[in-house]
What does this fold into?
Amino acid sequence: MAAKLETKIAAGALVSFLVVGTVCLLSYQSVHEARVTSRMVAHTYQVLTQLHAAVGDLTDAEAGTRGYLLSGESSYLGRQTENFREGRAAMQELTALTREDTVQQGRIASLRQKFDDKVAFLEETTRLRESGAEESAREIFETGRGQQVMNEVRQTAAAIEASERTLLAERQRSAAQTAANTKNLVLIAGAVNALLLALAFATIRREMRARRQLEYQLRHETRELTALNEELEAFSYSVSHDLRAPLRHIGGFGDLLRRHLGDRADEKTNRYLTVIGESTRHMGVLIDELLAFARVGRAELQRSKIDLDALVQAVLRNLHASVEGRDIQWKIRALPEVEADAGMMRQVFTNLIDNALKYTRSRPRAVIEIGSEPRDGELLFYIRDNGVGFDPRYAAKLFGVFQRLHQTEEFEGTGIGLANMRRVIHTWRPHLGRSET
It folds into this structure.
């Protein structure tokens, strides 16, 4: 339940972060567009300023030339040269400012041509007046050709200005729309976050109620489990004492009967007495392993650093009787230190190595390999052998109580060993694996 609650809270937080992140992103985009628009507005005003300057310089030059033609006073020509120079500079600046707009570049090229035509007209009339051809200068000036060129200059300039102002209006509308969308999004995001907070509060409150109910059930089940464990302890005591006593009596009276009969016992009687003795001993071993199986998982784990190399060597020394006289090739890889319960680890390796020795007994040369290898971020320990193996179809039965895949006549055992190992290893919560190889 805790994981479920954490998942819900994480999902709600993620959605909230996404909403806030989206608002921040769009707000940044809106600010960026506003800055771009501001730069473009400034750019438009620069274009308009240079456009007005070029046309104004040409207009001033025209007015000065007209005054000179009418009065003959050279003072009217005082700024003509500067007007021409400043006008051409303004035209160059216009070309640079609109270099990314091919349409405007075409209009400005036309404006520059008309500007130059008007300058040439004014310079021509000025030269005629200065050379004394006053009437010729006036006639040229009064033909209206100069006025026509000036009108074309103003019309082209007006087209350029209208285009710039259209672009300006579009950019301002786009910026206004973006700002309005961002404002609406902020309001929606606020509402969504408020809803998420309300849902999170309701979810946490519901989960807390459910958790309190679960804790109550858990306490109740813990009391029941404690009672069951006490019953199991009582059962273990009964098995240990009440069942062992009849077995001891059976075994004891069997031995007494064998001694009482002595040489009078025939072959059949001796066979019966042998079966009785072996059965009582087998039953005793079975009781011991059942008690060990019942105790596993109830003892408190005693964690400590364990040198597995030394532990395996100690287990092999204890199993010396099973090894003596056999041709066995041991492949023991370097094993790491681990932190675990030493008694349980010894029990696991003893049982598994003993199984490897038992099921390779029929091989002329047994090969037993012990080692470890990393797998999926965990450390896998293995014990492999070239024994008789088992049918993979029945692999799931290997770790069940009283489950055996071989006859007792072939290999001795009670069918509890691997089940016991599984409980031991599940106490640590790793995985006990098996392979038919």
In short: The radius of gyration is 52 Å. The chain has two domains: 2-202, 296-428. DSSP finds ten helices and five strands in the chain. Residues 430-437 have pLDDT under 50 and may be disordered.
